[in-house]
């Protein structure tokens, strides 16, 4: 039996290697396609996944790079772990604005009924001033302190003037989120200053706050993420033609008079607005009697809530609980002792 020539063996090996390389390339391409479809995927996915075109041959350099890679992984992990769950909200209360947005939403729904579940409720309309991550009650209290410290800075920026926020036109983020635009004007710079000082104030408290992208004030009226099943039903983007009649529509003006620290995750209030931990009032709102009553009730509720929280924290302290137990048991012991003395005293008299 003849042994195959060396050349023939080399040819088969090359063919097998070629097939393996082709399969590896196809697998890598398929993996990349899947990663790009994930939420928040970026053009840097290839680098983050450590998929490189050049093999790491130099073992000495690998040791030198090990620490820098470890630091980068920790940095990436910290960024990925940053999931905001609280935010500073400027509530939208003007009926003219909410009424105009409801007309806009209904016009869109009439064209595509499936988008009804993607609409934001009118009680939730707001401008997000700052997002942050608060892990526990202690950090929530830090956030409340930061909000209270923010008030004099804002009043210094405004110098006693009202900040009027006019809304006009429609915009979107990647055709996934639809929002009413804040019109251009002299009100933009003060609002940007307030957003910046808010970010700095919260970060100085050690709170993870802010976003990588710049602050862009907007009033969200719909977002596809509210109804994930829409994607499965073929609705992957918001068609701009659905709101083209409102591109230049004037929705009205809101006066900045209150900023709330709200939770993204806690149950919303009965009126549809977010769970509010605390608020600050900026200047005086040009409003009617009912609005004044509502504001007074709101402040009263926030004050009571703060007192209840303080009482709860006090009762949870070990020293407080020990004192309560001590007083209860000592009181009971003294009472029993007095009863015994009374009996002895009576017996002595007889």
TrEMBL record:
A GO cellular component annotated for this chain's UniProt record is:
cytosol
GO: which molecular function terms?
protein kinase A regulatory subunit binding
Could you tell me where this protein is found in the cell?
A: Cytoplasm; Nucleus
Q: From the UniProt entry, list the residue stretches annotated as the region Disordered.
A: 1-26, 56-80
Q: Which UniProt keywords apply?
A: Cytoplasm, Nucleus
Q: List the InterPro entries hit by this protein, alphabetically.
A: AKAP7-like_phosphoesterase, AKAP7_isoform_gamma, Cyclic_Pdiesterase
Q: What is its main location?
A: cytoplasm
Which residue stretches does the UniProt record annotate as biased composition, category Basic and acidic residues? 61-74
Entry annotated with the keyword Nucleus: yes
Q: Where is the A-kinase anchor protein 7-like phosphoesterase domain?
A: 84-281
What does the entry give for GO biological process? regulation of protein kinase A signaling
Instruction: Mention any Pfam family matching this sequence.
Output: AKAP7_NLS
In terms of PANTHER family, this protein maps to: A-KINASE ANCHOR PROTEIN 7 ISOFORM GAMMA, RNA 2',3'-CYCLIC PHOSPHODIESTERASE
Q: How does it assemble?
A: Binds cAMP-dependent protein kinase (PKA). Interacts with PRKCA; only the cytoplasmic form is capable of interacting with PRKCA.
Provide the protein name. A-kinase anchoring protein 7
Its gene name is AKAP7
